[in-house]
Amino acid sequence: KQEVTQIPAALSVPEGENLVLNCSFTDSAIYNLQWFRQDPGKGLTSLLLIQSSQREQTSGRLNASLDKSSGRSTLYIAASQPGDSATYLCASPRIGKLIFGTGTRLQVFP
Amino acid sequence: DTEVTQTPKHLVMGMTNKKSLKCEQHMGHRAMYWYKQKAKKPPELMFVYSYEKLSINESVPSRFSPECPNSSLLNLHLHALQPEDSALYLCASSLSGGIPYEQYFGPGTRLTVT
């Protein structure tokens, strides 16, 4: 059974900092791993998807890495901005459905 | 266009009402999903449609009835709901249900049951 956890659960930082959000999964036989952003009361926005054959993906200030052997994925946010404030979720597919992590609530203050 | 639309944005209904949630995508995706999300929790899968056929039902109570009239449209019919069913209902789609392609989510419908 795949279990996905995220650390930290919450993070509050001043703008400009470089951030690392962690996602751990118990079953290393994953197909891919997807990172999402969710603003309060809104839907999920897909940020990055890393295939199992890839080690990392980049989009603008975001970089996601995947280490299947250690069961970990990391989302790196460079030069954080107040607009990055949201909940970040990682998810891995298992038998037709996404298994979501517990989420990291990020607040970036001016 | 990577957009999934959902209507209505907000819905308040009594326990004896019948209402429907609607989801639409025009990306040519053949898998569509309904999720339920409670506050400060991750989304929980309810149903999956693959090629317009129900492929996964996560033991959802029968007061929730999904329908997929065509490959672009997904409905969720609601009847005799309970206050604990109040939540954000999210729709998602992906290229196919058999292979775990990237899922795209709609903005959600905030449902309040009184």
State the share of residues found in helices of chain B, binned by percent. Answer: under 10%
Oligomeric state of shown chains: heterodimer
Quote the average pLDDT of chain B.
Answer: 93
* Fraction in helix of chain A: under 10%
Mean pLDDT of chain A: 93
Give the radius of gyration of chain B. Answer: 13 Å
Largest interface: A-B, 21 and 27 residues
Shape of chain A: globular
Largest sheet of chain A: 6 strands, mixed
Individual helix count of chain B: 0
Uncertain residue ranges of chain B: none
Q: Main sheet of chain B?
A: 7 strands, mixed
The class by helix and strand makeup of chain B works out as: mainly beta
- Which geometry of chain B do the CA atoms define? globular
- The amount of beta strand of chain A, in percent, is over 45%
Rounded to the nearest angstrom, the distance between the terminal CA atoms of chain A is 41 Å
Q: Work out the strand percent of chain B.
A: over 45%
Work out the radius of gyration of chain A: 13 Å
What's the gist of this structure?
The complex is a heterodimer of chains A (110) and B (114). By secondary structure, chain A is mostly beta strands.
